[in-house]
Amino acid sequence: MSKRLASAVILIAAAACSRGGPVAVDSLEKAGGAQIAFEIAHATYTGIMDAPVTLIDGRWEGEPFVEGGASRPTVGLVDHFILTGDLNQDGLDEAVALLWESSGGSGNRLFLGAVSSGEDNVTNLGTALIGDRVQIRSGTIDDGRITLDIVRAGPEDAACCPTEKALVSWALSEDGLNQVADETTGTLSLADLGGHGWVLIELGHGQHLPEDIEISLLFQDDRVSGNSGCNSYFAGVLAPKAGELAFNGMGATRMACPEPRMDLERRYLSALAGATGYRFLAGRLVLTCDTDEGPQALVFTAKKNPAESPAETGE
């Protein structure tokens, strides 16, 4: 394989950004990088467990903690987000990768894994811990630095419920990835959901939407609006605490559409009415909802500006 990518950074949380921004794996493959994406998902990474781990289809599992038990150490790749850029200032596109590690408890540690693509394989150049249960809003590679816009647990936060926003940067050196900056930027709020629209990509775990249906969501101050697949809708937004929200006074137009579309609309609006909170997952927005069928997650991606290219939006 030729040196089409000197390095790649894979993250577990991020959003649309400009130069050096995230690139979705499917976009990378369409651009001729299918082999690179495959090698990243089958590379060997150090610095996560005591011994190196080799991913197979983006996942590694160790031996059970207790013989015959189901709980075991696991490492996985966040496969929808890749950052590319020049990490070592050699004029070539370089990068890193976002991986998660779980040891069977409630914790979930996130790591950056920098890799280089050679003639025959991908080599892990360095690995850096981002944190436990950190949410990634966006990321960039600029002037040799990887910078993540994250949400982490602040001094008063429980580990489960981070609200502190920060910009954290890493740089590549001879001994791997090293943190070079850490700036706290504020507290998570409803304003962090505005600035652009969101498009629904999952109506519940693994339930992807048909390509010909767009369900959208736009936050503006204490109001929300969008299209629910057939009709336009609107509602007020309540945010009692950082990371929490609820909608009230929901209304919608009453146009009729074919039944499959109407069914999706009913399910979406029903879930939205039960929304209780929000979080970020590698640039995606996740609304947690209480429904008659139990807890449900609505997963959105940032709405793409038609003038932007896939590499600029991460989609």
UniProtKB/TrEMBL annotation:
<dbReference type="Pfam" id="PF03724">
    <property type="entry name" value="META"/>
</dbReference>
<dbReference type="InterPro" id="IPR038670">
    <property type="entry name" value="HslJ-like_sf"/>
</dbReference>
<protein>
    <submittedName>
        <fullName>META domain-containing protein</fullName>
    </submittedName>
</protein>
<dbReference type="InterPro" id="IPR005184">
    <property type="entry name" value="DUF306_Meta_HslJ"/>
</dbReference>
<dbReference type="InterPro" id="IPR053147">
    <property type="entry name" value="Hsp_HslJ-like"/>
</dbReference>
<feature type="domain" description="DUF306">
    <location>
        <begin position="191"/>
        <end position="292"/>
    </location>
</feature>
